[in-house]
Design goal:
Mean pLDDT: 91
Shape: globular
Order of helices and strands: EEEHEHEHEHHHHEHHEH
Low-confidence stretches: 2-12
Distance between the termini: 46 Å
Strand content: 15-25%
Radius of gyration: 18 Å
Number of helices: 10
Largest sheet: 8 strands, mixed
Structural class: alpha/beta
């Protein structure tokens, strides 16, 4: 769902290796690349609603030491102008898939935050051949995964809420029309208020190894995060019985304490090592106690 306007503040470092726009499904889609494509499967980062590539630079910096990173601005976000079509998670996923293919990427690990996490789920469902591993952070697969207060906050927003924010500034740079900005904000509100409804059997059909991440003060209900974790193959009864992992788990669950929806974006020091271990198939070590 939303990454609030305060989370859209850009950082100054690092600079992308390359950046630009690619014609994708009728969009002029802005993206940034950290590292060199073609050496190994990259990590695709998908920001939340009202966020852009600049919001993810600290994450790109954390991952880029060991892998190539691609960050994509979805329709109307950051450097990607809006076009006259409704917003949907499915369309965003198709746009992301077209971007990867346009960059010559046959397979990528995918990490999405908030709205971007919902897009990542759709990408894994609609284009499974493109997705290696899947990281879903602060996102839901059903509307009831959010606390009701989140929906109330979304429906109460409008363009004046974002006046003077980096979100508005970025939009007006490519589309200097306040009316167009207000119209796009309304489309984002509709998307996030209605959200998506992925049936349980479709969630179970996702083949990518997955990691689910939330804060315990997130807009996502912790029960929903656990449900997503289980549907994606999480839970190991053999490990439960023996106290030890026998193999790399199919799905992993991370719940950070005293961490809000926006607060998760600042937890790179904690989460980048954990996510890197997941992407690299590193099994947690078992201490020698007996």
């Amino acid at each position: 769902m939303t990454g609030a306007a305060t989370a859209a503040t850009t950082t100054t470092t690092p600079s992308p290796t390359s950046s630009g726009h690619l014609p994708v499904d009728g969009l002029d889609l802005y993206h940034e690349v950290y590292g060199e494509l073609g050496t190994s499967p990259p990590l695709l980062l998908l920001p939340g609603a009202f966020m852009a590539a600049g919001s993810m630079r600290a994450w790109a910096a954390g991952f880029a030491e060991h892998r190539t990173v691609v960050v994509a601005d979805m329709q109307g976000q950051g450097g990607t102008p809006d076009v006259p079509r409704a917003l949907s998670y499915e369309q965003f996923a198709d746009d992301a898939a077209a971007l990867l293919r346009g960059l010559g990427v046959d397979r990528a690990d995918v990490m999405g935050y908030s709205q971007g996490g919902g897009v990542a789920l759709q990408l894994a469902l609609r284009h499974p051949d493109l997705v290696g591993k899947l990281v879903v952070m602060a996102a839901t697969f059903r509307r009831d995964g959010w606390y009701p207060s989140v929906h109330s906050a979304i429906t109460g927003m409008d363009a004046t809420t974002l006046a003077g924010s980096p979100v508005e500034t970025a939009f007006l740079e490519h589309t200097p029309d306040p009316v167009a900005f207000a119209a796009w904000v309304e489309k984002v509100k509709v998307l996030n208020a209605e959200d998506q409804e992925i049936p349980d059997d479709r969630m179970r059909a996702i083949t990518a190894r997955s990691m689910v991440i939330v804060g315990d003060a997130d807009g996502v209900r912790p029960e929903h995060a656990v449900e997503m974790f289980r549907l994606l193959g999480g839970g190991d009864e053999r490990a439960a019985a023996t106290g030890m992992l026998q193999e790399v788990p199919r799905a992993r669950l991370v719940v950070l304490p005293a961490t809000s929806h926006i607060g998760l974006v600042g937890e790179t020091a904690t989460l980048v090592p954990a996510i890197t271990a997941f992407l690299d198939d590193v099994a947690p070590a078992t201490p020698d106690l007996f």
